[in-house]
């Protein structure tokens, strides 16, 4: 009688385990493009972040995305992610 299992994901910034619905998914597509996946349904390798700028900054400092995607991440990608997160925060 425990009910439905809630999928947990670890934030690449703070390292906290939270439910998948609370997190923001960042994906690497087959073409090597890095995008913010608001729906959580796009194809690609995923990494999860808490919806806070502090976690994004920690992930940048600790190279969390680079470790998750096993590739170097250009600064422009981080800047784009920051802008997209700010827009999500305003909604």
UniProtKB/TrEMBL annotation:
Gene3D superfamilies: YlxR-like (3.30.1230.10)
Transmembrane domains' residue ranges: none
Taxonomic superkingdom: Bacteria
Residue ranges constituting the YlxR domain according to the UniProt record: 9-83
Pfam families from the UniProt entry: YlxR (PF04296)
The protein's name in its UniProt record: YlxR family protein
């Amino acid at each position: 009688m425990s009910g439905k299992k809630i999928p947990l994901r670890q934030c690449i910034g703070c390292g906290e385990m939270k439910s998948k619905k609370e997190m923001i998914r960042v994906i690497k597509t087959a073409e090597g493009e890095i995008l913010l996946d608001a729906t959580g349904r796009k194809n690609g390798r995923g990494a999860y972040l808490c919806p806070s700028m502090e976690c994004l900054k920690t992930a940048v400092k600790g190279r969390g995305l680079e470790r998750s995607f096993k590739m170097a991440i250009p600064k422009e990608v981080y800047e784009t992610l920051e802008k997209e997160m700010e827009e999500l925060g305003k909604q």
